[in-house]
Prior knowledge:
The complex is a heterotetramer of chains A (305), B (320), C (339) and D (325).
Chain A: H1 2-9, H2 12-18, H3 21-38, H4 40-43, H5 84-119, H6 121-136, H7 139-154, H8 156-161, H9 163-191, H10 194-202, H11 206-217, H12 219-242, H13 254-262, H14 271-298
Helix pairs in contact in A: 3-5, 3-14, 5-6, 5-9, 5-12, 6-9, 7-9, 9-12, 10-11, 12-13, 12-14, 13-14
Chain C: E1 8-20, E2 29-32, E3 35-38, E4 42-54, E5 58-62, H1 69-76, E6 84-89, E7 92-93, H2 99-108, E8 109-112, H3 126-137, H4 143-156, H5 173-185, E9 191-195, H6 203-220, E10 223-228, H7 231-237, E11 240-245, E12 248-254, H8 255-260, H9 265-273, H10 311-315, E13 321-322, E14 328-329, H11 332-335
Parallel strand pairs in C: 5-10, 5-11, 8-9, 9-10
Antiparallel strand pairs in C: 1-4, 1-6, 2-3, 6-7, 11-12, 12-14, 13-14
Chain D: H1 2-30, H2 33-38, H3 44-54, H4 60-72, E1 78-79, E2 84-85, H5 86-121, H6 126-139, H7 143-157, E3 170-172, E4 176-178, H8 183-216, H9 219-226, H10 231-269, H11 274-283, H12 287-315, H13 317-322
Antiparallel strand pairs in D: 1-2, 3-4
Helix pairs in contact in D: 1-4, 1-12, 5-6, 5-8, 5-10, 5-12, 6-8, 7-8, 7-10, 8-10, 9-10, 10-11, 10-12, 11-12
Amino acid sequence: MVTTWNRIKNSDFIYHFLRDPVACVSFMILLVLVVSSFAAPIIAPHDPYNPATIDIMDSELPPAWNAEGTAKFLLGTDDMGRDLLSTMLYGMRISIIIGLGAVALQAFLGIVIGLLSGYIKRLDTILMRIADVQLSFSTYMIAIFIGAIFQMMFGVANYEQIAAPLLILIIGLAEWPQYARTVRASVLAEKKKEYVEAARVIGLSNIRIMWRHILPNTLSPVLVISTVQVANAIMSEAALSFLGLGMPMTKPSLGSLITAGFEYIFSGSWWITILPGILLVLLILVINLLGDWVRDYLNPKLYKG
Amino acid sequence: MSELLKIKNLNVDFALRERTLRAINDVSISIDKGERLGVVGESGAGKSVLGFSIINLISKPGYIDSGQIVFKGEDISKYSYDRMRTIRGNQISMIFQDPMMTLNPVLSIGEQMRETVFAHMNVSKAKANEICVEKLKKVYIPSPEKRLNQYPHEFSGGMRQRIVIAISLLTNPDLIIADEPTTALDVTIQAEIMDLLLELCKTDNMGLMLITHDLSVVSQVTQRIAVMYAGTIVELGDTATVAHKPQHPYTVGLLGALPQRAGSEKRLNQIPGVMPGLAKIPAGCPFSDRCSLVGDICREKRPQLLEKTNGIRVACHFVE
Amino acid sequence: MTTNNPEILVSIRNVVKHFDISGGWLEQIKFDNGRITRKQSIVKAVNGISFDIKKGQTVSVVGESGCGKSTLARTVMGLYPPNSGEILYQGKRIDNLSDAKLKHYRTRMQMVFQDPYASLNPRMTVGKTLREPIRFHRPELKEGQVAEKVAEVMAKVGIDPDWQDRFPHEFSGGQRQRISIARALALDPDFIVADEPIAALDVSIQAQILNLMMDLQEKSDLTYLFISHDLSVVEHISDVVAVMYLGSLCEMAPKKQLFDNPAHPYTQALLSAIPKLGHEFSHEKLKGDIPSPINLPAGCVFHTRCKYVNDRCRSEIPAQRAGDGNTIVACHAVEEKRI
Amino acid sequence: MFAFTVKRIAQGILVMLIISFIGFGIKHNFGDPVRELVGERVTPEERAQIREKLGLNDPFMVQYVRFLKNAVQGDLGRSFFFKKPVTEVIAAKAPATLELVFCASLIVVGLSIPLGIYAAIHPKKLFSRLIMGGSIIGVSMPVFLTAILLIYIFSVELGWLPSFGRGETVTVFGFWDSGLLTKEGLRHLIMPSIALSSIMLPLFIRLIRSEMMEVLESEYVKYAWAKGIKPRRVWYVHAFKNTLLPVITVGGVQLGIMVAFTILTETVFQWQGMGSMFIESVTRADTALMVSYIVVVGAIFVVVNTIVDIIYGLVNPVVRVTGRK
């Protein structure tokens, strides 16, 4: 255990990471955001899910630094009188959970499909054609389509009840082609390498070669796109919520908070939409910055000098 | 014969994030007008860097730290960018290693040839085409007029290298630097390209700096050989002497490692270890950790490249 | 041909290997002279090659890039199934065996690859790479015995057995090639196919690997099929040399015979092109380029560049004919004694 | 080149078949053609009669082929809400969306090429760092949020620009309602097209920059330097022409994808185009309109992709001469 830790501590990865201020700061911010969102039930000053604590008279109060604000609601309240800070923390938790869940599903689907089409020629054409069609439609559009179909299947009320798992399913189904294409491309590249031939000369079975030799070597591109995909999934969720295909207002994600606040900016209550917006951008931005760093680190093609 | 190019005490550094590494260490060498010089070494010896530093085109973190590159009596190493451009591709041409990669895939051969002409000569398009056709004929490309409109992928590797040679001839340069021009090609094509280069240099009295890892190729084309090891020249002299009576232990080892020199001997002569990376070059003689003759002095003092017997210059404490 | 000669370890019989690279049917549409036609692109990599490899010998296959020598090596190893023809190991046909039946032969024949950077799995330690074949083929061995075996082969190829936990990127090119050889030796094979094992290495390292291979051959009584484009290396290491051109065998002869008295015009041209230390150039010029293996010339594949060409060469494929002193030549001109 | 074009078009048709199949599948399972035709108030007997008459009891494939036949003739069904053939509804809404996409594409192409090239050629300069920093923020900003911010700043706080609608439009060619010809129309276009371009612009800048940097490292660019030609020629002819190839393939598709993002921008700006129409049709469960939207947008994508592929073929001599990609 100690040696593993030392190995990690002394690795290139950590060495380069610590020398990149942008990566370090991004990581710190991300850590704070993730921890505070998952600790929301403990640290949030109010419980936005408990109607008993919400008073409609408190609605649309501006943040505390504003003359009309009160210290009770640090970042003000939303149109229903919920404490915005607490609602944002809970909302961010939902956004992150959906993001991670969707990426886990995408990665699972994408890796399996990518491996299959990289290794079995006959499946390749069909699977990749589907992926192409889906990508040329843009994953957003596909997500909206699937969301719309689900809403018709379940009806609006039922849809809202199971919105979170549905959103994971929708975004997962919409975005797997990214993974499948990446995995397939690296399977095809790895397959040509001589170590795979060496494994075949030894007589290892195809499944074993795929599992033990090829799969581990396709993981770094998977890691690279995974960070970006988490950011994309959170954005997709926000977009779906904005279109009314996402989380209901009773259990808002950051996206549905922004949506709910949109109409109030015309009456001057900008904070209901802008503050969750800033939080959402910050969350996605730090993930993207980390993603960029990981990509540069794992694929230093341009910096070889 | 007059001196065409003289490199004096050249040092080339690569500035990495953590530290600066020396890729070329105190190299001095000269080429006379019309002379053919071979630069031989294994990968990482710094031979390509040397070639590129002449026209100040070292890839990115590398730069010339100190030293002079005197071309026709002027130190071109300090030339401004625009002034350097009048030398590059004009008086000094380069031929790269892999002809599949050196020609731009989206531009026609004609475009890639004409732009070189226009960069260095003030001529009309018709005149430029005429020059291109003439040079393509010189490298034995059949029906050159038609070929001008074709793209690189329509040519074989050998043909592409001929085209690259034709491009390097466009401005009638005084010196051609050929960086491993045949490494990517098959033996029969290699022989043709080398033959062609030799013929062109002889007829036009052009200087040639042939950079390669292949001693046998160099020995057939050049008049003098410089052997490089870990950024320095360890032996320099006329081709026949170096090829048949090498003096520096590294050259001796390198020649002994060639199967064709082994004769009936079953085992090849092998040098132990590998050439050190730039970060790990030993103090003193860079070859000291692989040398069989090594003594205490080798680990402390860097040997100078001095003239020994037969007019050969050797950088070794033990060669008399 | 007789097959039960105990001296013969591996026989290659009329092996043909083609690759279809034409893709889907949409990719095959061509527009020629105002008509739409469908054309398949098939790379004819190996076209009917036969020869035997005797026990304990080193047989080299030389040829220029694209001549099919690597494809032949992989077909012999069973990495590609041949389109037709047979591969025999000690007189038994192995090219059509199932994986389970082939398993035994996998321990008898192993392969060393060209690129020391690609032939080792970058995510596996050296020890793991070497243990894998032993565990797979000899599951009865105990942990300690496997470790012993790994240490033994590592020592054999000159790599410190203490370095088992290191990853391939921590080794130099020459060292990796040694590890690659160790992996091949881990199963104590009789026959090793080496596909350009030194082409990616520097001269001084090449000598180390060649010496190692020759030492191992002596110690372990190995038989080599050595694939190379470098004629001077081939001249040094081989007992018998086969010259390939565009998927066909031109000539095969004991080394000395081939280098001193090449019979086939292509062999002659190839030999004259080797740069020789300190000699002026005097090579035989071949006209034109190598034709594409997709559109092979009719008749003798070499006829487009041969100076002895006549009408028969343009239409009839020359057979592999046995000549004097264990040689095989496939040339009409030699047969007609025009050369 | 001819064979190449034929191939691309054939592939495009194949994709259209797949899309129409999926679209029909949705319609078949969720749609209610009877309601589309006569509304809700009919007796079960009448419904059954109409169903029989419409051939709704035929096997799935028979119905699909009929759907295809009608679709090719421009008949995609009737909208339940608008009480009109869907093709008419879409034709009325399409100009708004297409003009928006057109303007956004102009912004994307016009800005990304110079900025991307600059950032690739001078990676260390301050301005390049600003471009790259800005682009990563841009990538991280959901398009509807950008739109909301724009409205908040320029409409609510500053009051400079209108926050919704298309403004004054002029009918040209007899069917096309254009906002490009009036001052008000153009003013209404500014924010929506900036918002729509905000998602693609940073992506394009990053794409162009990284492709160009890779090309600048290539042997042939190094060789071009060694030939002593002018830097401008090396950058804009040697490097940029090669950068263009991957940018065309990826970028062309991305421009098509902007149509998808119009759903979001149009919703924020209440832009009366196909995107907001689609979202409305989802809430109204107007299946015929939804499915037609999918088919029409699919057709747009296929056409864009095919054109992009053909342009790629024209730019790349390897394809132009041999017809292989």
